[in-house]
Amino acid sequence: MAQHQHAPSMEGMQKPDWLVKLAPAARTEAIQRQLRGFETTMAEVAYRYTEMYWGGIDGNWEYAAHMQGEMGKALALGLERRPVYRKSAEQLFLKGAFVQIGEAIQKKDAALFKERIETLRASCSACHAAEKHAFIKIAVPTVRRNPIEKP
Ligand code: HEC
After folding, report:
1. Which of 33, 98, 120, 136 has most ligand 1 atoms within 8 Å of its beta carbon, as the pocket-test mutant?
2. Which spans in 82-151 are helix H?
3. Model pTM score
4. By alpha-carbon position, which residue is closest to atom 30 of ligand 1?
5. Is the distance from the beta carbon of residue 61 to the nearest atom of ligand 1 less than 6 Å?
6. What pLDDT digit, counting tens, does each position of 29-85 carry?
7. CA of 96 to the centre of ligand 1 (A)
8. CB within 10 Å: which end of the chain, N or C, has fewer?
9. With contact defined as beta carbons under 8 Å apart, do 61 and 69 qualify?
């Protein structure tokens, strides 16, 4: 019977070359395809939204601020890939609830933070409704994603 090999095989050690093997004219399109679209942006936004929430609940305000900032960056990069969503993102999220949750974090105000989480998640859902994904209604997180110690 053939033994299953756990040692790194030669195949595993080869440099990935799928991209360089493509004709140069096909590479840019392949990179665009691999970068994907707004669905991967949103998976990151949802992750950071969840962790920002637990940061605020724990009083770990620096962690919450980090996650809020990175959530903004993820969205900005996603909008570079999918500018069709820029108008809704700015009107329904970036200029309102996103700024306001940042203020609550800067103030380290737990009561205000909880209030503004409600406004924030309503804004997430409003954008989904505006962009034909009304079935994605954002709730208050119930499960932690990262093993972070409370301060
Ligand atoms: C531009 C408006 C807009 C805003 C603001 C927005 N979303 Fe989205 N979201 C979308 C769109 C559009 C999709 C569907 C993307 C697709 O499938 O290509 C989506 C999809 C999702 C998904 C499903 C991702 C998947 O795996 O396919 C989740 C989860 C999500 N959003 C969470 C959030 C959360 C949490 C917030 C707020 C913190 C938020 N979104 C804010 C537009 C938005």
Report:
1. 136
2. 86-89, 97-107, 110-130
3. 0.92
4. 42
5. no
6. 999 999 999 999 999 999 999 999 999 999 999 999 999 999 999 999 999 999 999
7. 17
8. N
9. no
